[in-house]
Each structure stands twice: as C-alpha cells, then as structure tokens.
Specification:
The protein is α+β, with helices and mostly antiparallel strands and 139 residues long. It has a single domain, classed as Lipocalin (Beta Barrel), CATH 2.40.128. It has an eight-stranded antiparallel beta barrel. Strand 5 and strand 6 form a beta hairpin. It starts with a helix and ends in a 7-residue tail after the last strand.
C-alpha cells in the first residue's frame, strides 16, 4: 500500500502544479495514469447501474496487457474473464478491450482518497475506480 500511496501523492502533486487560475479541469497525462495503474488492479464503479453495465476488475500488466473479470452490475455470482491491452497514446491513457466493452483514450483525475475518475469526451465523469496494489484477484 505504501508504493500506491506514494504514486497517488505524486499524481496529486503533479496535477496541482498544473492547475490554472481559471479553475479549468486538469487531467492527468497518460504517463501519470500508467504510473498509477500499471502493475496494479482497478475495480470499476459506474455512477449508475443501467442495462449493460457490469461490475469489473482489471489488472494492468507491464507488458501492455489487461486481464479482467466482470459480472452483472451489483449482483453476486460467477465472474467471466476477458482480456485487452493498454498504451499511452497522444498523451492519454488508452484501453482496448474489444467486443462490446468501452475502449479508447480517456481523461482521468485522481482525488486525495486515491479514487481514479474517468471522463468521457464531453468532460462528464462516467466511471470511478478503486486501485489495489498488485494483482489480488490473480487475474
């Protein structure tokens, strides 16, 4: 947990240094997001649990692969697994999961509690992630 706390504090410090006096949204660079999640596991939490939304966990390996598991939103039961890839592209952190899963390059912010927030193209926060050290789910 100490490693993750250090990375989070570094990301917050970097984000604060880049803030403008106009209070514009300041997003992390793709490299900052990668430093936070690569080698770790994220757990997704959608703001709304609508049709097609699923609970999920994803491990971001240093080799550029993503290994995930998912199940129906806020349900108990078996998890299904999936895979994909990640990379930093044009200054953003990008995730490609294939199939019907949301993929692409997004903007991110991290708060003082270590919650990573993803923003869509319109600038609306659409997904929050908890970050866990390493690969606790053996994905």
């Amino acid at each position: 947990m100490m490693k993750l706390n250090t990375v989070i504090m570094t990301a917050i410090t970097v984000a604060c240094l880049g803030m403008s006096t106009a209070f514009a949204d300041v997003y992390m660079t793709g490299k900052e997001v990668a430093a936070l999640v690569v080698g770790n596991t994220i757990e997704g939490q959608y703001r709304e649990c609508t049709i097609g939304r699923k609970d999920f966990s994803e491990f971001f390996d240093e080799d550029g692969t993503v290994r995930g598991r998912e199940r129906e939103c806020r349900m108990t039961g078996n998890w299904t697994t999936y895979g994909g890839s990640w990379k930093v592209e044009d200054g953003k952190f990008c995730v490609y999961l294939g199939s019907d899963r949301t993929s692409g390059c997004f903007d991110y912010q991290v708060d003082e509690d270590g919650t990573l927030r993803r923003f869509n193209e319109e600038g609306a926060m659409d997904l929050m992630f908890k970050i866990y050290d390493g690969n606790p789910n053996n994905l």
